[in-house]
Amino acid sequence: MKTLIDIRDDLMNELLKEANTQVKKEAVILAIKTFLDIKKREKLASLIGHYEFGYSLEDLDEMRNDG
Questions:
Q1: Nearest 5 degrees, angle CA 36-CA 34-CA 23?
Q2: Cα–Cα dist 25/40, whole Å
Q3: Does residue 4 lie within any of the structural domains?
Q4: Which of 6, 19, 27, 66 has its CA 20 to 30 A from that of 37?
């Protein structure tokens, strides 16, 4: 998808430096992928302790003892 965006020079220069490239397209793609990975990890982290998977603590203890 072609997109025309106006990015501040200082931000683009810093991104190019951190991405270790001089190709703006590569730097922007890397930044987008990194952002999306961070958001996915945040969503997964928010599930810790809040996910109901069908077994109670008692059920798990019983399964462990039956082993």
A1: 125
A2: 23
A3: no
A4: 6
* Structural domain includes residue 14: yes
DSSP state of 17: H
Q: For the chain, what is the domain count?
A: 1
Could you give the dihedral angle defined by the CA atoms of residues 31, 35, 40 and 48, in that order, rounded to the nearest 10 degrees? 130
* Burial zone of 27 (CB within 10 Å; 0-12 exposed, 13-18 middle, 19+ buried): buried
Note whether residue 39 is domain-resident. Answer: yes
Tens-digit pLDDT profile for residues 5-30? 999 999 999 999 999 999 999 999 99
Examine residue 1 and state whether it is found in any structural domain, yes or no.
no
Length, in residues, of the chain: 67
What is the reported pTM?
0.68
Within its chain, how far is the Cα of 2 from the centroid? 24
